[in-house]
Amino acid sequence: MNLIDTHCHLDFHAYDTLRDDIVREAAEAGVERVLAVSSADVYGKAIWEKYRAVSNAYPNWKDVLDEFDVQIVLMDSRWTICRLLDASPEFCRVYSDSKASLYVRRDGPNARVVTDYEAGRLVIPRDSLPNRAALLGQSQPPMTRGVLGAAVPRAGS
Questions:
Q1: How far apart are CA 92 and CA 108, in angstroms?
Q2: How many whole angstroms separate alpha carbon 132 and alpha carbon 137?
Q3: Residue 152: pLDDT band by 50, 70, 90 thresholds?
Q4: Coil, strand or helix: which one is 81?
Q5: Which residues contact 112 (CB under 8 A, 6 or more apart)?
Q6: pLDDT tens readout for residues 40-54
Q7: Which of 44, 99, 140, 141 holds its CA 20 to 30 A away from the CA of 11?
Q8: CA neighbor of 104 nearest in space, from 88, 92, 89
Q9: How far is CA 55 from CA 12, 39, 86, 89, 102, in A?
């Protein structure tokens, strides 16, 4: 059997010391080819490094969010950056499940979302996506469990 890993992130610095072992073990398991996926090719290395600064919770993570005037952050709930955002007085977590956490900047154009959330007027239930299965005539909704489907309005809209 020929195996090809079609989506891996061996370019991440976290694998720098393990990369050779990972490739060797994959080959021993029968993986013949590996496609290393990287957004750096699309956005350029400078932007990619800034994204990594935030997602990997590097010391300059807040500077990057400020530089790009980031108002809403959606990240994997397991990542360290979520702990830092939870502790930040500038952001409010308005949604979280085992897959993702959604943060809104308190003093930005979406401040109303934070105010409504903290007052209990904004509730984003899990599995809040519309029943696409019914719309499509399917018995099971495609890819809806644990996915956040909410639009966050801008203040004044």
A1: 11
A2: 8
A3: very low
A4: helix
A5: 153, 155
A6: 666 778 888 888 889
A7: 99
A8: 92
A9: 11, 13, 14, 19, 13
